[in-house]
Amino acid sequence: MDGKERKTSKKSEAEKWSASWFFNWVINSRFAIAILVILLISLIILVLSKMRWIFSPLTIVLNTIALPVIIAGVFYYILNPLVDWAEKKYHIKRSLIVTIVFIVLALFIAWGIGSLIPVVQSQTQDLLANWPDYWSKLGNFVVGLFSADGLKDLQNELSTVNTDLGEIFKPSKAVNFLPKSLNSIGSILSRVTSVIISIVTAPLILFYLLKDGHDLPDYLVGFLPNRYRLSVKDIFKNMNSQLSNYIRGQLGVAFFVAVLFWIGYMIIGLRFALLLGIIAGLLNLIPYLGSFLAMVPAIAVGLFTSPFMLVKVLIVFVIEQTLEGRLISPLILGNSMKFHPLTVLFVLLVSGKIFGLVGVILGVPGYAVIKVVVSTYFDWFKRSHPDLYVTEHTSLHDISSDEEEQ
Question: Is residue 198 in some structural domain?
Fold first, then answer.
């Protein structure tokens, strides 16, 4: 057999292979390849889940540094614009600017501890001491709303919940309830120690973040090959933009919400106005749900005072929601976080179910980071496979016409 016959034979074998069902259904099928990739990833995840002991040291490290890094990161996004502005305007060394900012921040914290903390502490003690009565009054009010004959089952359930929660919040029961929620004195000491260490180390991390944080992306991409550095640096830039917009926006809105509720409660003469305002501001960090959750203690206190006070509390809530939705949120947040409300709610539900309260607070910024990575990869995939997606200059009619001609 000469060379020409061999080439013809190999060509015929290749044609038979390309025409075979295995080639068409498996090798040349994007759907089948995608299924195989998903199965391979699932298999890797399954194997890794059976080898958790490998990741236990990494888990310990992450649990140790997570809290101080998060605290330092939040303050970094708050203070970094001020440091950048001062550096550009006055041309002073960045380390000196950071030192001045730390001194001012320490004085502000000292003022808060000396003047604000005692008032909050006093109102907190009074609220906790009277909370069983407030909660019982609120529970009886809610049960009364469902006093119709057709809602007796729901009324009985609400009565049971009200009784159980009232028992939990009794001062005599709190002494026995708290130790049961914590396994031992050692666990309490361990948690307190970790919190103290986090509070001590967070300012150190914050100092170096403010001083050298702008060089961190260049340092990290320096470990990557040259062709990936620019795209990865863009990802870091987009992540930083998303996180900074979210953190500054949410904290700014939370601050004004706390001030609005505080002023509103003081005007109507509600007890614990400062404490309830701070609670409202903190809970407002939970998107869409925080303000409604913050109304529960305010409604309980207002209802216990008088029905007319309850009406005034609801009026304050309506005014605050109107100002927040029409003025404060658009002015501070703007269109920086383009997330659909349903998307945010789903993220809150899933992250809260998996990670608890921490997931509820950090779920949305975590989703923003993941979205940046996924969007960047998807844009790259579309550029790499232009035949799969409609571009700005190509219509669906043109694609269908090309397929008919083929």
Answer: yes
Residue 332 lies in a domain: no
DSSP 84-102: HHHHHHH---HHHHHHHHH
What is the model's pTM? Answer: 0.68
Range of the domain at 151: 72-214
208 assigned to some structural domain: yes
Conformation bin of residue 205: beta by default, left when phi > 0, alpha when psi is -120 to 50: alpha
Q: How many structural domains comprise the chain?
A: 1
* 149 part of a folded domain: yes
Which amino acid would we find at residue 282?
L
Structure tokens at 253: 């809105």
Name 365's Cβ contacts closer than 8 Å, sequence gap at least 6.
242, 243, 246, 247
d(CA 154, CA 36): 50
Taking only the tens place, the pLDDT of each residue in 173-220 is 444 544 454 455 556 666 677 777 878 888 898 898 888 888 888 888
Residues 379 and 374: their CA atoms lie apart, in Å, by 9
Would you mind telling me the total number of residues written for the chain in this entry? Answer: 406
Q: What is the DSSP string of 201-225?
A: HHHHHHHHHHHHGGGHHHHHHTTS-
Distance CA 323, CA 203 (A): 35
Q: Which of 8-12, 29-33, 101-105, 270-274 has the lowest mean pLDDT?
A: 8-12
Q: Record the tokens describing residue 212, joined without a space.
A: 């050298």
Query: Contact at 8 Å (CB) between 139 and 166?
Result: yes
